């Protein structure tokens, strides 16, 4: 954790907020974690940015939200309006939101609705909504990595030189932004073609999920076709290697892995739509770990995703988004 704390000034240098602006620091953490929040607030304030702190602690959900549910009360609209009023949100995760201790089964749907309302207020109609996951032990468990490996990989990625990263992202964007198709060659014999005509590229050089370092786009949902070889797929904590994925009319048609096919066959068609193509540009991500939020930022890698893309220029609105990271023999833009 000390390494992460030392990197907070660099993280704040990469954030897109400007002097004179206000930002909501939404903190998924407890009192023992407060040093992270306060150090972020302090470093933003030194740049002339006004930080407002909002706590989403375990105690908040266990003692406040569950009592509101018990008394059949909703979040007051004034509370949601307050959170919605911020145009800039930094969402800081010391832990991943989950069901609170002691919740009765009958209260679970109501609690899930509370979370949906909260996330809507934090994410809808924002100029910047940025997620920062802290390398805690509980977060490392979710990745399937041991805590030291996870902290090292994440902190290396966060140590990137932000001015150089922003320059690299800008140059890569300028080289591809007017292209209409992408053909990806993997495994020497496989090719996947994407139609990106009329779609907009997005840049994550510190203004999206941390760690930063990619540009990405939503291909046309019904026009991707061909085969793609993925070296590592992490599905529900299980690692599968050298998976061949076949796409027809924009959807995953099948793969060389029965477990992956079974997973998607049990879910709606919207989960199988090829929804994203991205280019990794962070030189401080040195190797693939199987944890895609870090792997997809590695310089020299590419990634696709299945599922949701309506938040970045696509048409597929679904509650699922899964990335697949790979190296390519060639990627042709035309």
Structural overview:
There is one protein chain. With 334 residues, the chain is α+β, with helices and mostly antiparallel strands. It folds into 2 domains: 2-134, Thermophilic metalloprotease-like; 163-333, no CATH class. 32% of the residues lie in helices and 29% in strands. The chain has helices spanning 2-14, 34-45, 58-70, 77-84, 108-123, 137-143, 147-158, 162-176, 258-265, 292-295; strands at residues 22-28, 50-55, 88-93, 128-133, 181-186, 190-195, 202-204, 209-210, 214-217, 225-235, 238-248, 251-255, 274-280, 302-307, 321-326, 330-333. The strands form 3 sheets. Strands 12-11-10-6-5-16 form a 6-stranded antiparallel sheet, with helices on one face. A 5-stranded parallel sheet has the order 2-1-3-4-8, with helices on one face. Strands 7-9-13-14-15 form a 5-stranded antiparallel sheet. A hairpin with a 3-residue loop joins strand 5 (181-186) and strand 6 (190-195). Helix 1 (2-14) packs parallel to helix 2 and helix 4 (77-84) runs parallel beside helix 5. It starts with a helix and ends with a strand. The relative contact order is 0.11.
